[in-house]
Amino acid sequence: MFKEVKTAQEYQDVLLIRETVFIEEQGVSREEELDEYEHTAHYIIGYDEEGQPIATARYRGIDDTAKIERVAVMKAYRGKGMGKKVIVAIEQMAIKHGYRHFKLGAQTHAIPFYESLGYQAYGQVFMDAGIPHRHMEKYITDTEQL
Ligand code: COA
């Protein structure tokens, strides 16, 4: 269901989801959405049975930490476990590349979602793209996940 993005078409599908979710639905500007890490981050993409793109995320390696960003599930597919699958898939990809520590900036409404995946919030609320966020992190120590 989820695959590492390797082709220009798959990257276009990632952008289609982000355009729909972050720019149209959440009102983030295109300038903020498309950042300087576009071409160095690692992406995953998920498709439905008809081949429509439905979920995506990316990570960037910062020292020994994988920073997870741009997590999005198309509205019609939310609340069905798809978001959880996206996070597991991006974590697995980063684990394969040697990462064991993950962090992300969670929109505050999504904190319970990330907590259900083992992330813990720390620090104060901060604003990013006009949306309140908190930092969250997780260490993977359970060898069953490796
Ligand atoms: N509040 C509380 N719990 C939530 C939640 C919310 N807003 N969204 C999901 N959860 C919980 C679910 O109840 C579920 O818990 P369970 O496993 O105990 O049943 C768990 O988190 C996984 O939910 P899931 O169905 O996999 O999540 P999803 O497919 O709806 O995806 C988002 C979650 C946040 C990725 C999705 O809502 C989304 O794309 N939102 C718009 C973009 C966005 O805000 N991205 C996050 C940026 S930090």
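^ coenzyme A complex. Residues 21, 71-73, 78-84, 106-107, 109-110, 112-113, 116 surround coenzyme A (CB under 6 Å). The chain has one domain: 2-139.
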